[in-house]
């Protein structure tokens, strides 16, 4: 019954005939007052999952959203569709806020967007208590978790929502959350018997490619040559780099501009506008660019520098090909970038530098992969893809491999005998029979696989273990001191003698050149 009403709302207010897969299930659960967590890639259609129930039920839906700029766009779009929506955030005067609060009291609004800092402000919960709230929607829910890549302290305040409003259902939504972040979101929001909906993160239309970071400008120019007039984004690590690169591309005759958080708001808005209207072909940008940019025909994304983790990489390449048409993601990889990022992470004010470094290492392993990149990426987000994708550089040009089954068996058995408590370095030391202080003090020299892999050097073992990790043969427990853990795939290697192809170790094959200055 209620789902009929939901379909009517979809048609009447949004002009669509049918729900996308999963939207209907999610909405049904929300309408039954269930708490839900929704993981859907950008462009998947998350907003309707709370906007539709908000219209079906009596009362008002409160949406927590971290980006003030986005909030305004969303509210305007809703109003265009005839939905009474407004927002409250710190950019408004107290007079302006009062007007909106009064509209809420009078039951004149169906959707209220609030910034997380607004939640922290005194008396806000008292204000909310006076309203008839039909649903809380927490957008970008990964911001609540220090495991995630975009932790925002104000978000931790959201844990009081369930405590204060136990009767009101909560829908948490995010486009990026690995397994740990997912658990953390559920726990911190204290959701009641939550249902989790994960739609596939696969973006099969995006071709994934990694190139060594030398002669980047030359490669970019020839890439542009092969993609005439196709709109695209080049992500750079520094603000200066975006400006310099844009100037270089302009002087090569391209319509390029730059975008970063250090330029005035009007200039930023105008760069964004020009890109949306196809007045410029290329935006050279820092990570500040892209959140909420609804341009469906971005044909390619280039990473001039290595992103700091796979979540960011995924999110940034996801700005390409939202229309489903063929698109490309090209990443330049150099050790120089890894070194700069390491320095930034250790010297910066980032929370949990060790975790951030581990994530950077995972990013680096992806860049060095000898295994289908899409499988690696999806596995990182907790999704298993049985077949290689045939749409990444590795699938198109597979490196030659040898039968590494015996090495894999030795490594996995060492992990098992170390009771799945040891980190990668310890596992290698055990395999190589190193009698260092740590190994001796733990008595690891007594276990059966000690020294079973003496024929290989440390770096060789490291490469092979990374390859095995990328192939999903074991996992790293980031929340358990980075211990290596076995999984179902490990069993097939250990007990069913599944063959493990490995790519021969070749020192410094990839990216030892220093980062190019621009
Ligand atoms: P997300 O928040 O997951 O990034 P949005 O909610 O912004 O995605 O939706 C992306 C686009 O898909 C929007 O233009 C939206 O109007 C459209 N969309 C969402 N659901 C449907 C649907 N059921 N039918 C047609 N278009 C839809
Ligand atoms: Zn592939």
From TrEMBL:
Helicase ATP-binding domain boundaries: 27-195
EC number of this enzyme: 5.6.2.4
UniProt KW Cytoplasm keyword: no
Gene: recQ
Family: Belongs to the helicase family. RecQ subfamily.
Entire-sequence positions represented here: 1 to 518 of 713
Signal peptide interval: none
A GO term, aspect molecular function: hydrolase activity
Coiled coil: none
Chemical reaction(s) catalysed: Couples ATP hydrolysis with the unwinding of duplex DNA by translocating in the 3'-5' direction
Cofactor(s) listed: Zn(2+); Mg(2+)
Official protein name in the record: DNA helicase RecQ
Domain (Helicase C-terminal) ranges: 216-361
Domain called Rhodanese: residue spans: 212-267
UniProt keywords, alphabetically: ATP-binding, DNA damage, DNA recombination, DNA repair, DNA-binding, Helicase, Hydrolase, Isomerase, Metal-binding, Nucleotide-binding, Zinc
Superkingdom assignment: Bacteria
């Amino acid at each position: 019954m209620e789902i009929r009403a939901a379909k009517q709302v979809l048609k009447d207010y949004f002009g669509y005939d049918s729900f996308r897969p999963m939207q209907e299930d999610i909405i049904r659960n929300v309408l039954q007052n269930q708490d839900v967590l929704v993981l859907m890639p950008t462009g998947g259609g998350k907003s309707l999952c709370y906007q539709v129930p908000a219209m079906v039920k009596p009362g008002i839906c409160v949406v927590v959203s971290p980006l003030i700029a986005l909030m305004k766009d969303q509210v305007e779009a809703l109003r265009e569709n005839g939905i009474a929506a407004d927002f409250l955030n710190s950019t408004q005067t107290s007079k302006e806020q009062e007007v909106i609060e009064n509209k809420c009291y009078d039951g004149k609004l169906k959707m209220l967007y609030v910034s997380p800092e607004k939640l922290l402000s005194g008396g806000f919960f008292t204000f909310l208590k006076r309203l008839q709230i039909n649903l809380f929607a927490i957008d970008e829910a990964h911001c609540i978790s220090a495991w995630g890549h975009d932790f925002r302290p104000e978000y931790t305040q959201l844990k009081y929502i369930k405590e204060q409003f136990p009767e009101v259902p909560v829908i948490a939504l995010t486009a990026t959350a690995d397994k740990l972040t997912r658990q953390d979101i559920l726990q911190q929001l204290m959701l009641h018997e939550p249902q989790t909906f994960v739609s596939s993160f696969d973006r099969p239309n995006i071709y994934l490619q990694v190139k060594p970071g030398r002669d980047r400008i030359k490669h970019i120019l020839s890439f542009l040559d092969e993609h005439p007039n196709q709109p695209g984004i080049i992500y750079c690590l520094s603000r200066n780099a975006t400006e310099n690169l844009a100037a270089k591309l302009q002087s090569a005759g391209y319509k390029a501009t730059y975008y970063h958080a250090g330029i005035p708001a009007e200039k930023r808005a105008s760069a964004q506008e020009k890109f949306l209207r196809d007045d410029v072909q290329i935006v050279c940008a820092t990570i500040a660019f892209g959140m909420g940019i609804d341009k469906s025909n971005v044909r390619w994304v280039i990473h001039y520098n290595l992103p700091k983790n796979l979540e960011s990489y995924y999110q940034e390449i996801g700005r390409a090909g939202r229309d489903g048409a063929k698109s490309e993601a090209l990443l330049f990889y150099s050790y120089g970038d890894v070194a700069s990022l390491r320095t930034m992470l250790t010297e910066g004010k980032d929370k949990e530098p060790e975790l951030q470094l581990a994530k950077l290492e995972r990013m680096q392993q992806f860049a060095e992969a000898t295994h289908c990149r899409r499988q690696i990426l999806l596995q990182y987000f907790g999704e298993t893809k049985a077949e290689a994708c045939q749409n990444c550089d590795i699938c198109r040009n597979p490196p030659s491999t040898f039968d590494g089954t015996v090495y894999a068996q030795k490594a996995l058995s060492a992990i098992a005998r170390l009771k799945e408590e040891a980190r990668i370095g310890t596992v290698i030391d055990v395999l190589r029979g190193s009698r260092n202080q740590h190994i001796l003090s733990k008595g690891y020299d007594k276990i059966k696989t000690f020294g079973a892999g003496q024929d290989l050097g440390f770096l060789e073992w490291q490469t092979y273990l990374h390859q095995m990790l990328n192939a999903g043969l074991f996992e790293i427990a980031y929340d358990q001191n980075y211990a290596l853990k076995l999984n179902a795939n490990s069993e097939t290697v250990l007990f069913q003698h599944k063959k493990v192809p490995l790519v021969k170790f070749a020192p410094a094959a990839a990216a030892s050149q220093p980062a190019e200055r621009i």
